[in-house]
Structures are given as C-alpha cells and as structure tokens.
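Lecture 7 notes: from sequence to structure.
We start with the chain below.
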Amino acid sequence: MKVEIWSDVMCPFCYIGKRRFEQALAGFAQQEDIEVEWKSFQLNPNMVTNPAISIDQYLAEVKGFTLDHAKQLNNHVTQMAAEVGLTYNFDRSVVANSFNAHRYSHLAKKQGKGIEAEEQLFRAYFTDGKNIDDLDTLVELGTAIGLDATEVRKTLESNAFADEVKRDIAEAQQLGIQGVPFFVMNNKYGVSGAQAVPVFEQTLQKAYTEWQQENPKPKLEIIEGESCGPDGDC
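Predicted structure tokens for the same chain:
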C-alpha cells in the first residue's frame, strides 16, 4: 500500500510529522507492505535565499510579527521537536529557497534513496544550519547517502527534475492540499499536519484493511511432490 507524503524542507512541522509517522509505522504489523513516497511542495516558491538574515528575522518580516514573537513561535516548535527526539537550531538555520533541494530529492528518489534524502535535508536545515540551496552542500549530502558526486552536481547545474517538482505541486493543488505535511494513504485517506501517533496508527490500519481487501494475496491449490527446501533437506 502506498503512502504519499507532501512536504517542504523548510517546514518545521514536516520533520516532526515525519518522526511521528515513522513511530506509527514502526509499530505497524504489516509495515513490510507499506511503500512510502515523498512528494514536493513549496510553502514560499518566491523565497530568496539569504544567509545574511536569521529565520526569526525572515519570519518577522514576512508575517508582520515582532522579532520577539517570531522567536517565541520558533522556541515553541523547538520544544515540540524535542518531544520526538529532534534538535532544532533556528539560530543556525539558513533562509533558503527549497526548489533545488526538491530537485535533489527527486534525483535521490529515482535511485532508491528518496527517504534517506528527505531525512538528511531536514537535518541539514533544522539541526546543522546548512544552506539547502547551495550546490556544494547538496553534493555533500548526496555523497553521504551513496549518490555519485559528479552526477548530483551535473543534475543540479541543469534544469533536471524541475518538471517533476512542479508536477508534485500541481498534484497537491488538484487534491486540495493547502499546507504540509500532508499524508495520503492508499489514495483514499488524507492526514493533514503533524498529527499525534495514534492518528497515524488508526488511519494506517483503516487504509491497509481496505487495501488488503482490494488486493488479496493469491491462494494456490498445491499438489505436493518430491522437492528440496531452503534448509537443504530433500
């Protein structure tokens, strides 16, 4: 059963939601039947990468908050993140447009490294204070999960995977997704936001039960005969 997750690298609730979903999935008895696919979403496609200002300053300017209020909001989210074992260092986070990071994640997904790429992008942005719009940073992240450095650099220097990112965003619009994280299970059930673990558990079970009914495993009528087993007995 497929679970599609729309998110943006710069969304603090997306990383928290990722952890809570993973906790639910870890306790799900049929987790081997679950396929997770990450999808691109941009909260602010017009954001200009600017390492010279802090996230607090950016939030205050964009939302019209005072700097103190912006810091209070980020401190609150930091506490939420800590509850699921994440460390947020907003004082180190770099204001950066996420489009290239999404292109990078599509390259990683094509090579079977999509989940690993999402995790390291979140960690790079929220914990390590790295510029996720910087080419050298993305090459470094790619090599850390086994991607070829030359291929990552060549891909990001071109316009590769731009259409894939835009298609994900268009699909989100068609589904009526207005915020992230957003989880779609079995193309039937949507979970919006970094919900509590039990919400993910209940929705996973409901979606899986229906998926299992729609996709029953084949039952074979077996005629026994002489054969050899994997333990070497013949």
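Points to note: The CA atoms of residues 152 and 158 lie 10 Å apart. Residues 2-213 form a domain with the Glutaredoxin fold (CATH 3.40.30.10).
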